[in-house]
Amino acid sequence: MTLAAEGFLEQLPDGRYRPGTKVLTLGFSALRSLDLVDIATGRLGALADQTRETVNLGVLSDDKVLYLVRFRNADLVTANIQVGSRLPAVYTSIGKVLLADLDEDALAARVDATTSFTGAGGPGAVPDLPALRAQLAEIRRSGYAVQDEEVAFGLRSVAAPIRGADGQVVAGANVAVNATQWSRARLLDELRPPLMAACAEISALLGHR
């Protein structure tokens, strides 16, 4: 029912389902992202080995983050995310890194003041569009984003942008941790530098200078 409501499935009169038109958007997104995935996977895998924490790569799909790569730490049990999962961009560190690169018109086209804030996030979830805009301004200044129990209780992450040859942000990567083991300060001190270095390296491989 959820997939049908989102346009990914269409219910036939006899009760059976067939793929809906929105499935095509996932296919095209995946095709456009093949080079990115090939280039990023090795470096993100090395980052996961280095940090021993969960590492993700994602791109924008409407007002959601579509996860393309995931190296999961078995200890991270607070979020059931897989390659192909789509989460609200306004609640995720990757999503906020991607939204921060949009101008006001593009942001308005992606994020709706009501439907994009579903109330299904964690206890720290950003409540509305004005609060999100304030976060995005800080992300543009600092160059990274933090998710502090916004996706789910007990989950923190830090994300950095990956840029293409034209300088535009084409994806985001993050390191996700258990909030009971990692304070926000420790997350930034220990995991942000290697994450940003990895994203800079991937950006360079994509042609960014």
Q: Determine the fraction of residues in helical runs and give it as a percent range.
A: 40-55%
Would you list the SSEs in sequence order as H and E?
HEEHEEEHHHEEEH
Mean pLDDT: 88
Radius of gyration (CA) equals 17 Å
Q: What is the strand tally?
A: 8
Which spans of ≥5 residues are poorly predicted at pLDDT below 50?
Answer: none
Largest sheet features: 6 strands, antiparallel
In the sheet with the most strands, the strands line up as 5-4-3-8-7-6
Class inferred from helices and paired strands: alpha+beta
Percent in strands:
15-25%
Termini, distance in Å?
Answer: 45 Å
What form results from the Cα inertia axes? globular
Task: Please characterize this protein's 3D structure.
This protein is α+β, with helices and mostly antiparallel strands. It is built from 6 helices and 8 strands. The chain has helices at residues 2-6, 23-51, 93-100, 104-110, 129-142, 184-205; strands at 9-11, 17-19, 54-61, 64-71, 86-88, 145-148, 155-163, 169-178. A hairpin with a 5-residue loop joins β7 and β8. The protein is globular and about 55 Å long.
Layout of strands and helices, then pairs:
Blueprint (H helix, E strand, L loop, with lengths): L1 H5 L2 E3 L5 E3 L3 H29 L2 E8 L2 E8 L14 E3 L4 H8 L3 H7 L18 H14 L2 E4 L6 E9 L5 E10 L5 H22 L4
Antiparallel strand pairs: 1-2, 3-4, 3-8, 4-5, 6-7, 7-8
Helix pairs in contact: 2-6, 3-5
Which features would summarize this protein structure in a list?
209 residues; alpha+beta; 23% strand
